[in-house]
Amino acid sequence: MSVTACQGLGFVVSMLGFAGIIAATCMDQWSTQDLYNNPVTAVFNYQGLWRSCVRESSGFTECRGYLTLLGLPAMLQAVRALMIVGIVLGAISILVSIFALKCIRIGSTEDSLKAKMTLTSGIMFILSGLCAIIGVSVFANMLVTNFWMSTANMYGTMGGMVQTVQTRYTFGAALFVGWVAGGLTLIGGVIMCIACRGLVPDQSNYKAVSYHASGHNVAYKPGGFKASTGFGSTMKAKKIYDGGANTEEEAQSHPSKYDYV
Q1: Do the Cβ atoms of 20 and 178 come closer than 8 Å?
Q2: Per-residue CA distances from 182 to 129, 194, 206 (Å)
Q3: By C-alpha distance, which of 17, 201, 202 is closest to 102?
Q4: 66 — alpha (psi -120 to 50), left (phi > 0) or beta?
Q5: 21 by DSSP, 3-state: which?
Q6: Distance between CA atoms of 172 and 46, rounded to whole angstroms?
Q7: Which end of the chain is more exposed for a tag (fewer CB within 10 A), N or C?
Q8: CB 174 within 8 Å of CB 21
Q9: For residue 157, which phi and psi values (nearest 5 degrees)?
């Protein structure tokens, strides 16, 4: 798979997961009333992160938001925080990944910079998906605990007869949407990290040798590159040649005493 296709696939999958996280956070059906012991009821209760709703048999639905913050359970507040952090991380990741796409060229952006941006967006998508999965799992664990505690309180010790009727809540549709959305965001982030490797430019392990094309003499030294024009060496050779000629003429004009022997 090419780098562009891999990067585009990761971006699309992450976008789908991010949209699912937003939908799950805004949904009201995080917990729904369990109708196992009372299948026929005039009202149906379900709750979300931000409000609780009651639907009557006539089709009329009434929702009421949570008017308190400190009075809410600590687990519910933790789930809210995790989902909001996941949405913020996903939004930042989308902005970074748009500029990191190889098919989009903005100015003179180098591939090495796009590789770093792709890796950053992939890691943030992974963190966003983990926040969503952890938040949904914490809420599901809270539901399971409350469900079995309510079940234990419903049944007395006298022959297992039901003494009191309590409202029990089970998994709502928002939990499954959150799990799927978190998984898609996580997978998309992993694909983006894999696509990052294809954007990194290849680095050679050999050292280049500088070459200077010139008609004059070129001197190479281990410490670096040094080029000479050859003009100085030519003048030096000319001086030596002229000096030798002058010496020979002087020897002929001033003969020594050994020349007459």
Answers
A1: yes
A2: 4, 19, 45
A3: 201
A4: beta
A5: helix
A6: 8
A7: C
A8: no
A9: -95, 0
CA–CA separation, 106 and 96 (whole Å): 13
In which residue are the tokens 């009727």 written? 165
Phi then psi dihedrals of residue 43, to 5 deg = -130, 155
Q: Which of 39-53, 116-130, 144-158 has the highest mean pLDDT?
A: 116-130
- Tokens 């430019």 belong to which residue? 201
For residue 205, what are its two tokens?
A: 């392990």
d(CA 14, CA 121): 10
In whole angstroms, give the CA distance from residue 233 to residue 81.
Answer: 80
Determine contact, residues 144/95, Cβ cutoff 8 Å.
no
Query: Taking residues 238-254, what's their average pLDDT?
Result: 50
CA-nearest of 126, 119, 146 to 47 is 146
Sort residue 107 into left (φ over 0), alpha (ψ -120 to 50) or beta: left
Q: Quote the DSSP letter at residue 103.
A: T
Asked if 218 and 227 count as a contact pair (C-beta separation under 8 A), the reply is: yes
Phi, psi for 170 (deg, rounded to 5)? -125, -175
Position 261 scores a pLDDT of 41
Burial of 203 by CB count in 10 Å (0-12 exposed, 13-18 middle, 19+ buried)? exposed
Task: List phi, psi (to 5°) of 109.
Answer: -70, 125
Q: Which among 105, 123, 106, 111 is positioned nearest to 194, based on CA atoms?
A: 123
Distance CA 13, CA 110 (A): 25
Condensed to tens digits (0 to 9), the pLDDT of residues 21-78 reads 999 999 989 998 887 766 666 778 888 999 988 888 777 888 888 888 888 888 999 9
How many Cβ atoms sit within 10 Å of the Cβ of residue 198? 16
